[in-house]
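assembly run, all chains below
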Amino acid sequence: MHPRETKISPWQLAMILIPGIGSTALPSFPSATAVFARQDAWLAPLVALPFSAFVIWVCGRLASRFPEETFAEYAPKVLGTVPGKLCGLLLFWYFFHVDAAIAREFADFLIATAHPRTPMPLAVGLAMFATAIAVRHGPEILARLGELVIFPSVFLVLLIIGLAYDNIDPYLLQPVLENGWRPVLMSAWLSHYFTGHLVLLVVLFPAVRGLQAGIKASYGALATIVAALVLVSAVSIGVLGPLTSSYYWPFFKVSRVGSFGAVLARLDPLVTGFWVAGSCFKLAVTLYAAVITFAHIFGLRDWRPLVLPLAALMAAYAVGHMDNLVEHQHMLIFFWPPYTQVFQLVLPALVLLVAAVRGVEGKPGGAR
Amino acid sequence: MGRARQWMRLVLLYLMMLAAGGCYDRIELNELAIADIMAIDLTEDGLLRVSLQFLVPSELVNPGDVGAGSGVRDPFYVIDAVGETVPEALSLLQAKVPRRLFTSHVRVIVLGEELARAGIGPVFDSLTRMRELRVAADVVVTEGEGVVLLQASPRLGRLPVGALANMLNQGIVPRRTIRQVAIALASDGIDPFIPAVGLAPRIETEREAGVRAEEFEIIGVGIFRGDRLVGFATLEQARGLAWLVDEAPFAVATIPWPPEGGPASPQAQRPDVSPEEALIRRDAPPGSGPAGLGGGIKEPNQISPQVLRTRVQLRSEVKDGQVIIHVDARAIDDIVTNQAGLLLTDPSVIPELEKALATSVEERMRAMLRLAQEELEADVMGFGALVRREHPKEWRELRRDWHAHFRQVQVNIKVAVEVRLTGLTGNPASFRPEQMRK
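ok done. output:
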């Protein structure tokens, strides 16, 4: 029952990363970025692209320096036992916190759009339970789930855009850079919070067959995600214009706008369905990363028993750590961008730098 | 794996199947009261009266089967409630409806004139925020109370909402959805406009007592400044607006021939026929009937084009604080009436005709511009937004006092009409050769 019995292919890695990062970003993304950049919000993911690519590069360097090991395993070797374990705990906290935030956002969306009378613990709890069951089966199952989710989702996104085509007013995207680059940079920072979630790779790379191909696949996944974010942002702004930042889930609103005559209209129940699927998937991937990190900090041989308790803790934290959607949105816009950089950029880059300076390397051919 | 565990799994599986049957918040179709039109009016005390028209599904089926005298009931009914906000009124309305209100299928939202004059901004917060409403729903304003529209009983279609939505879909005047109005409200340099709909009595040969016979009628466009209704554009002016916002309809706009200021009609100068004689002689100008019977057709010398395709492009220019808007309109026309008797088989006549048609289109736009710039001072065309897009730097100066600048905006209109078809006939089929004009 060792986690590294199952390995995934580079293609499967991409199938984990794309829905694992893009799924919750798509409906909510332009809302937050449009707060600063307004009609230029679609530029934000492009500006953030180099930073997110840097995250992949750092993760890739770390993975090739310490093959077959995850962050929590090599951090103590690099920084010394106590600081290393602390860094591992920090990373674990990041995954834990992000997962709780995703669960919270998932429940908020579900309750706000479709099920107003459903209690939040039920929504979060059910999602977490389903997620935990998937995670117990390891990364390969996640990849297969991702493959299941991604193609209908891409089709749905394109369908929504196609149906809303009549309502897209490109004028609403002008004037480009009305207030210069500053607001766009602010939004790019926000955007990087989403794409910087690629730091998942410190946990996922060791499970990939063929590291170099895996790195390439990650860059491909990043490009796909950024392209999707740009497209969805541009369409949302083209349809909703100055209303984009007012709506919490602009793309969901876009799905309610479009129609193909009387034949095909009102796709929003489908969107809600895919939101559930996509969010659960993202929850699963992040939960997996949290569990693995936690297990490796304490040197546990089998991480499976950790899954359900951690999922329960996350669910409790998700329900309890915020009072309302306003707080969540405020946190997302003003607190998360600087906060998450610590874990996405600083932490891995620091470990890589120290490892390079001290010349620490993992055993060739795997740690165990 | 023990047997007990297998049983547990089976039980769990069945429990999950139960859950698959519906979600926590499910509600059955026959527990819903489906609304299709919402009207919002301002009461005298400054409260909102929200009226909803509900479908009655059982009355929708087979009206033909109902025996004579049993009285076919309308498949809809209207209930209203008064509250301080739209959702509050809706929740009070719920007290009068036995099923759960369901507003997701509201297709048209009617705003009463009083409310529109007081300001639609507050209402639009509810309209965009409420979960069930769709932002693609049409918005219309009325002259007078909005709820009156819910009493219409159009003959075509069982449900008034279908008739109204279809009517708006014809594009007689540009239609506006919640989304578009909300964008205009939230944007710099553009004022909203909303189609205005009224009621017109239906002509019925057999008018039964007590049968309501009111049809919808598009009467023009409500012009807003900010969120307040400041006036109505007539149907004529609204068509000019349609051109200016590039949503020109398949409309027919008639011009006299020869155009005003052009050379006089050769027929009028026919030396061999005196007017009196012309009334008797067979080759009198068609349609110029005897003066004693009302003087014949008022304007017999008309040419009517049908607009097939249009494209209007607006460009702005800022010169020393003076805003100039260049309107470049192109249209492809089909001639559907040539009662003026113009020789349409002569290619050399087409450019002249095109010029005359272009002038008439420009006139329509000018009429709308006069209304917007001089009378109402409402930038419903979005000239300000255009300047903002194209000259963001100058806009920063202009935006502070845009409505004052808007009055002074100079609009250059260039219209190019292309007459591509002349209907199914060339020369007027019912005219004899000597009745034609060159």
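The two ends of chain A are 15 Å apart (CA to CA).

Chain A has a mean pLDDT of 84.

not gonna interpret more than that til we talk
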